[in-house]
Amino acid sequence: MGNFxxxxxxxxxxxxxxSKGWIKVFFQxxxxxxxxxxxxxxALSRWQDPEHGLIMPxxxxxxLEEHGLIYKLDxxxxxxxxxxxxxxxxxxxxxxxxxxxxxxxxFELCDIFEVVEASVKKYEISREFVxxxxxxxxxxxxxxxxxxxxxxxxxxxxxxxMDDFGVGYSSLNIFKDFEIDEIKIDMKFLRDFSPxxxxxxxxxxxxxxxxxxxTIAEGVETEEQSxxxxxxxxxxxxxxxxxxxxxxEDCMKELSLKGIEIEHPDEVKYFxxxxxxxxxxxxxxTRVNPAGNTDMPVxxxxxxxxxxxxxxYDGNSFRYLYRNAEYLKTLKVIGxxxxxxxxxxxxxxxxxxxxxxxxxTELGSCYSDFTINGYYCYFEARVVARNFDRCAILFSLTNxxxxxxxxxxxxxxxxxxxxxxxxxxxxxxxxxxxxxxxxYLRDSEKRDFESGNIEKLTKQFAENYVYxxxxxxxxxxFDTSTLKQRIKQTDSRFINAYIxxxxxxxxxxxxxxxxxxxxSDHALVFIRNADNIKSTELxxxxxYMAAVRSSNNLGSELTKELLWDNLNRNTSLGVxxxxxxxxxVGANKKFMDYYGFRxxxxxxxxxxxEMGWHVAPEPYKRDxxxxxxxxxxxxxxxxxxxAHGSIRDIRASKMPVYDNGRIIGLIGYFEDVTEVxxxxxxxxxxxxxxxxxxxxxxxxxxxxxxxxxxxxxxRGVDFAELYFSIDxxxxxxxxxxxxxxxxxxxxxxxxxxxxFGTSAxxxxxxxxxxxxxxxxxxxxxIEKVANKIRKLIMxxxxxxxxxxxxxxxxxxxxxxEVKDLNEMHRVGFNRxxxxxxxxxxxx
Length: 843
Known about the structure:
This protein has 32 helices and 33 strands. With 843 residues, it is an alpha+beta fold. The chain has an eight-stranded mixed β-barrel, surrounded by four helices. Strands 19-18-17-22-21-20 form a six-stranded antiparallel beta sheet. A five-stranded antiparallel beta sheet has the order 13-12-16-15-14. The longest helix has 21 residues. About 5% of the residues have low confidence.
């Protein structure tokens, strides 16, 4: 068939091809480079014609665009993709987001936003699972119109991807004028894979990361290409190396055979944060590969000159997520062929590096100088993402002796360099000019001190970082009006003070501050962790503490040990305590009796997850991380646990345990809500608000609705109940977990309360079922309230940092219809269920 005949056939048969299923929707996976897991799929069309066989996209897409028919194809692909993903959800199978390709013509030929919205609503697909791909050329034509329509997609919660970046006439104005979430680099660059093409790709990734745009490379066919893309930090890769476009089930089988897993929703935010780091940014791109040298791997040729690595630490072991050639080269120079951070047996120097990384997980960032195999090294690190027990740390390890220049050492005074090395920070005080100059920093001291006015800096530092009981001691130590005299009056010619100082993790740790005169109007101040000082050197601290203690011996027999022992044995609360890894260390008798333990060995050393007694462990796990990492105190957090074979409702409270200001664990207690409420009910009114959403609960509803009914009985003022729930609530729980479900309900409650104010009575009835009561005015007013509820809930696009789309159903009933409150609830529920059924029938 000639080109003209094929074009005519395509135009005449497009409707039949869609209605009779000749056009198939295939899917090709996009692989996240850092995890080698499937992060999403791209929906692609294939025309399997009964008469002409396979017609490729390059043969029919441009024809449909030329004849103004492309919107039919794109609309069909969108709906079919949503339908197939809804089927997978209904079957309990894993899903990830998928992208659909739109043509510039779609924006001219139809309201493409409403076309997409119709399918998303029909099949109850969350908008964050649909990515809109638009060819680069579309951004260069009718800029204002395209921008307006793409903004409509983004404001509704869809992400926008620019496809085929680099194939057309790209303009940097696109990134200035449009809000683009990601770009897909055209496969032609990788097909060529010349040094120049690779340099361009690296530059594109560098630029995109700097402005917060995710990068995807398509057309990846070899491991060499994949390694190169990983070395420059390209987040996602797509190509035949992993899987060609296939029907979704065939695609899943192919991935399974290759051992490629589907990314779990809990990992998305974590890996997005890790992937957003621009590993090329600290220095300009340097071509390491000299001209004519073909032996060097291409992935080593376009990297930062900074020795960078990124590791993932789960509390026990390390896994490299990324390391560049300069980092490996640095390790080799300082004497390590092996970069395994898990094997540190008998290697004290490698242990220093591992310890610095471990400290970073606690502090959030770390700056340190140490020697490894005789080389003076500078270590700088920060946490870039956390995911429960996992933590991703980006760090650099610089060899200061590189090329014999001893860059770092030359900056240190030769006579003081060894002294500097044992202190956290060294500062010079100019007592005449009242100026503090920082000479040396390491670890968390980088955020502790800056150069400037002594009085101003020390006052700010005292308020922000010094333990309250130690602030006067700290300010007195830095009092410039008496400092010189105080030093001269001592036999040792220096003064010191022991002061609890806050770390980045929220702990307070003892530090020794030492000041010594080095000139008539200059003093050096050295700061060092007190827990590194020999016990014999702590006498000054002990004397200081003895001086501030009261000499009053009243009640001295009531020691802390006796008080704790008696409280622990006799309290009605179940008390427990854990270490910093959330492992049980001990518990009181009430705790053991409640769970039926015979001895503490039944639970010591285990976490809640290992015990398996919480019905939904995520909320408690999340709270414990806040307690241990941030010093938070959580009070009466609701939850459910299993005790003596039954499910019990409890409320747990937890708080950090400090040792001289440093968090070393947590202590907590719980109440059995059933027992507590039974005791309270005879004395107090039961709570009328829902703890999770802040709305009324069923008891509060009864009191509120009685007022509406009273107005109806006395004055004939009608009122209405709107019974509504979230159709895809269970789908979201199955994807993200029950803790996320609680976050959804909380978000819905806050959104409704903020919008309705006092114009409606809002109730969380049960589960994800809600009620709204309002007096009935003009005809149509209640329908407007129902539409307002639908819109408010559907406008929730982000919950606790995760994108989502909620699909509500609403049932309306007026009291005058039934004249009975119980019947009112029943009718409202049935009408809500009918609307939900209609929505499902559309799919």
